[in-house]
Specification:
Layout lengths: L1 E9 L2 E9 L4 E3 L8 E3 L6 E5 L7 E6 L5 E8 L9 E5 L10 E6 L2 E4 L8 E3 L21 E6 L2 E7 L7 E5 L4 E6 L5 E3 L2
Parallel strand pairs: 3-4, 10-11
Antiparallel strand pairs: 1-2, 2-3, 4-5, 5-6, 6-7, 7-8, 8-9, 9-10, 12-13, 13-14, 14-15, 15-16
């Protein structure tokens, strides 16, 4: 049984736009569920919000078109006392095991494949296949590069800016290529 319904007239038919259930759950554009607040989209994919008292704090859940839970984003509170605040991303909803956790934001750090990142960005895998590969892709015609900027200097490593199919080590502070490995395997220094 519902406490309140807010309806609108769509093509001569009264359509529920928001429902407040007798258990306090609220639904916008759909049917009241036990998830606290549910916002239904017209395409069938259902983002939901739920609040729990088991230390997870806040859960954002994505349901696929069939209504099955597809992914969760969980903000961890400090329950139990002293627990680390974090934002966790899961591919297997309702699971908090490390195997289903795909990314964690914790203490200003990003962990992909690890639940306790030690660096600002840390990638971790189990060593099989390419699970620890970092790909930097530029779909356009310009080079793909990794920049290293610090008080010690600014460097980049990537596809050569001036030589086709070559790896370039560039001192960006001096706007100069310091080393280059061409497609023949030749190493050129201070080119």
């Amino acid at each position: 049984r519902d406490i309140a319904k807010f309806q609108s007239n769509v093509g001569g038919t009264q359509v529920d736009q928001m429902i407040i259930g007798c258990d306090g759950n609220v639904d916008i554009n759909g049917t009241v569920t036990a998830d606290g607040l549910t916002v239904d989209s017209t395409g069938g994919a259902t983002p939901t919000y739920s609040h729990t008292n088991n230390g997870e704090g806040l859960t954002l859940r994505y349901n696929d078109d069939s209504g099955a839970r597809a992914a969760d984003i969980v903000a961890i509170g400090n329950n139990p006392a002293g627990a680390t605040m974090a934002m966790r991303f899961f591919v297997n909803p309702n699971s908090t095991d490390a195997a289903s956790e795909v990314m964690r934001l914790q203490n200003g750090r990003v962990g992909i494949g690890t639940s306790s990142p030690s660096y600002l960005t840390e990638l971790s895998g189990n060593g099989s296949g390419d699970t620890v590969t970092l790909a930097v892709t530029n779909a356009g015609s310009h080079p793909a590069r990794v920049r290293l900027n610090s008080g010690h200097g600014n460097w980049s490593v990537g596809n050569s800016i001036s030589v086709a199919d070559a790896l370039e080590f560039r001192d960006e502070s001096a706007s100069s290529t310091r080393a280059l490995i061409n497609s023949s395997g030749d190493v050129l220094i201070n080119t």
